[in-house]
# Entry
Amino acid sequence: MLNNEPKLLKDVLLYENGHIRRTKHILMVHSLTKSIGSEEGLTLEQQQIVQSAAILHDIAIKKCKRKYNDASIEKQKLECIPVAKKFLKACNYVPSYTEKILNLIYHHHDYGAYKGIEHQVLIEADLIVNCLENRNHKEKAADVAIHFHTRTGKELLHKLMETKEFPAFNTLCDTVQETDDMHSIY
# Structure
């Protein structure tokens, strides 16, 4: 099967080896990317590319933490392409898709430079999930609102900014963060 997204998702989740926060982050960004892309009218090809990029967008974090003890954006950019290429090759992605997916992964933190609708959808999905993972989600949402340009992304972010605090969600995030801190080398 060409461009095997279900296998890609499975392989990446297995690679994360049960890391709760990163696994949850991948699943949420993938889901929001799918929803925002669909609502914004992406073509089937665009949708497949951005959904695959969503699965892989933070793929370098694990390697960067092991290799450098640092998962900064700069370090992720050094490592994301070779790591992602291995996954895409194993899942039979065609070269035209691979090139676009790698470009999206590499630039997913470049908020100021518009690189197409797929790039914008990925940025917005990732930023929404980052807000949800933040104890002060309203403030975080207000800080990143300037980077939202799609109708769907703006609507979702606006609703998030209106939402009252999530005490149960925040407790869960704190628990997950404590667990992640204990295993931060991975």
Summary: The mean pLDDT is 89.
